[in-house]
Amino acid sequence: MSSSRVCLIGYLAMIGLLHNSLLYSVTADVDLLYNGFQHAPDLILNGSASILRGGALQLTNDSNNLMGHAFFNSPVQAVSDNAVVSFSTAFVFDIVTVGQGGGHGLAFVVAASKVLPGATAEQYLGLLGKNNQGNSSNHVFAVEFDTVQANGLLNETNGNHVGVDLNSLVSNVSEPAGFFTDDGKNISVTLESAQRIQAWVDYDGSTKVLNVTIAPVSVASRPHRPLISRVIDLLPIFKQDMYIGFSAATGKLASSHYILAWSFRTGGAAAQAIDLSRLPKVPKPPAPPPSMSTVIRIVAVSSVVTLTTILLAIAFTLWLRRRAVLAEKLEEWELDHPHRLPYKELYKATKGFKNSGLLGAGGFGQVYKGVLRRSGDVVAIKRISSNGTQGMREFVAEVASLGRMRHRNLVDLRGWCKRGQDLLLVYEFMPNGSLDTHLFGDRAGTGAGKHRGSSPAAALLTWEQRAMILRGVASGLVYLHEEWEQVVVHRDVKASNVLLGADMAPRLGDFGLARLYEHGAAPATTRVVGTLGYMAPELTVTARATKETDVFAFGALLLEVACGRRPIDPVTGVNLPRWVRDHGARGNLVRAVDERLDGRYDEEEARLVLWLGLMCSQSRPEARPSMRQVCQYLDGEAEMQEEAVVVFSDAGSFDFASLPTLTWSSCNTMSVGSLLGGR
Ligand SMILES: *[C@@H]1O[C@H](CO)[C@@H](O)[C@H](O)[C@H]1NC(C)=O
Ligand SMILES: *[C@@H]1O[C@H](CO)[C@@H](O)[C@H](O)[C@H]1NC(C)=O
Ligand SMILES: *[C@@H]1O[C@H](CO)[C@@H](O)[C@H](O)[C@H]1NC(C)=O
Ligand SMILES: *[C@@H]1O[C@H](CO)[C@@H](O)[C@H](O)[C@H]1NC(C)=O
Ligand SMILES: *[C@@H]1O[C@H](CO)[C@@H](O)[C@H](O)[C@H]1NC(C)=O
Ligand SMILES: *[C@@H]1O[C@H](CO)[C@@H](O)[C@H](O)[C@H]1NC(C)=O
Ligand SMILES: *[C@@H]1O[C@H](CO)[C@@H](O)[C@H](O)[C@H]1NC(C)=O
């Protein structure tokens, strides 16, 4: 009797359990995916958050003291049977800072309410406030992506970290932002570098393991090893129903914080993959001052470059004529121009321009490594000797062009300063130095003095790295030629002007020779400048720097990187395009690939790069592909055309002395099919 009663109770309990779990599995599991937020009626925005027309979720713009929230409207069941429900989320964010030192960061949030308790801007990221830090009735869990080191208050290790916050902005776990490659390398990632970064947060309710992983969209697929992997009990934090979303805040330091895509799932399965090819675009940092009316603003945008040029030209003339009144006259435009940094700050950053911080020196001046006090950012500071008009002209060219551009493959000009004879340009520090040193080592350092890192013994670049670098530089050039508001001809594309970040991602630098002109306008003639071996033959005839002359220089770079040889060998004088072509003519084009790679390269890709290098090195400018076509070839969106004809000038394309005899009829014609041989 008694045993059958136990049985019955057991049976009822089992039905209850079954019933419960059935109920839960019907109602509890959530699975969302936003590839952009154009259609997101379920997203509730508050504060400075808004959805831009292109579909990006902007949590804050770069105004001061903002706070933006975006929450999924319905609560998610976070606790079931007294255990936290497993969840998995993936999202792509982008933090864009104008000038140097933005703030303060963004966070993925799981909270008991869509209105966060005591939410405060600045270092509190819109999550909590000074008075309720650490209070267990907050019920706030967050993974923060923090770009400012709060002074002392929050125990933060640096101004670029990922942290796990439990009811408190003093992170329970925190790591400098970065990811691990499969071979165990620790690669740091700058959160506010205007690059799209994907983050994954996974929690296993049964083992209580929380994993956080990040990786730039451009350089890596999901790393296998998480940045943070910890046992954390979320049960005290979570209530039965929790809201999921994002928060970001600015303070005196400000950045625009964007979420581009978001996927979230509970119940144990991994969040759905985000379609990275469909990410919404993020607006370029605005140029005009905010007080103008819209009409004036439109006029201003179109004429801002002309105006700046005129202003700078006037300032330049005045500077030349009357050094005594120079400081006062320049003050106005200096104030008008963004990113001006106080001399004192740069002086302190480099500890008084001490020689120990010298990264390089050359005819133009010196480059120092420094740390900006305010933001803790490591920067490279170029100090130009202004005792020549050339120095001043290049300085103005860089501030006027690079200062207003932003692209992940262009060096980031953080600011500038002019004080008497000292002209200073402040760039993001590129820890891996120049491509040149990686290809040829320091001993060959003809790029001496360019801004570069104090790279230790540079390891041989793998083929994959080389291909990634070439793609990056190509994409930077497409931006300069076609995507920016004006056409920018760089005029000095070469290996020593390609700088490598911590993850070896390339940025094209040194805009001292750059020329700007309107789309569709004919470039003016200029003094012929550039570097031997990278200069298109027609330059000596027309003296016009064009997009095609940049393409020629990029062709030389393609061959140089693939072959590990200089465009013109400094010792033997061998001309690289001709040398590669000769290999092609002998039917073994890929033999031209850098022998130090010892055969470790993708033969198909190597053939493509060499072929492209030859296409770009043709002496007839109209026969070269555009940078956009180059990108399409490199991305495999266009096919090599073997029947195309490569035309070289055999009359010493790079030899100034041969100018009078350089005629198109002296060109040597070959079919590419015969060059590619053995396909
Ligand atoms: C927006 O935030 C304010 C202040 O934090 C709060 O009072 C309000 O209820 C929020 N509105 C929504 C729709 O969440
Ligand atoms: C930035 O956002 C704030 C709050 O939404 C808004 O008031 C301000 O006008 C915005 N500023 C710019 C420059 O768009
Ligand atoms: C925690 O917050 C609750 C609700 O806001 C408040 O009543 C309580 O006093 C706070 N506790 C502490 C220690 O501040
Ligand atoms: C900050 O960190 C130190 C050492 O890790 C620790 O002793 C201290 O309690 C922490 N402070 C706060 C507010 O968590
Ligand atoms: C992290 O949280 C756990 C409780 O989940 C606590 O025991 C531990 O002290 C916390 N560590 C830090 C550094 O705050
Ligand atoms: C990764 O590198 C950073 C410095 O770049 C260092 O602070 C951090 O501790 C490293 N992380 C691990 C797990 O080694
Ligand atoms: C967390 O990462 C570890 C190590 O990669 C892995 O074994 C574990 O399955 C991960 N857990 C979750 C919940 O993703």
TrEMBL record:
Catalytic activity: L-seryl-[protein] + ATP = O-phospho-L-seryl-[protein] + ADP + H(+); L-threonyl-[protein] + ATP = O-phospho-L-threonyl-[protein] + ADP + H(+)
Signal peptide coordinates: 1-28
Record-listed E.C. numbers: 2.7.11.1
Molecular-function GO terms, alphabetical: ATP binding; carbohydrate binding; protein serine/threonine kinase activity
Record-linked Pfam families: Lectin_legB (PF00139), Pkinase (PF00069)
Topology of the protein relative to the lipid bilayer: Single-pass type I membrane protein
TM spans (from-to): 295-320
CDD domains according to UniProt: lectin_legume_LecRK_Arcelin_ConA, STKc_IRAK
Positions with a binding annotation for ATP: 382
Origin superkingdom: Eukaryota
Keywords associated with the record: ATP-binding, Cell membrane, Kinase, Lectin, Membrane, Nucleotide-binding, Serine/threonine-protein kinase, Signal, Transferase, Transmembrane, Transmembrane helix
Stored SMART domains: S_TKc (SM00220)
PANTHER family, sorted: PTHR27007
Protein name per the record: non-specific serine/threonine protein kinase
Species in which this protein is naturally found: Panicum virgatum (Blackwell switchgrass)
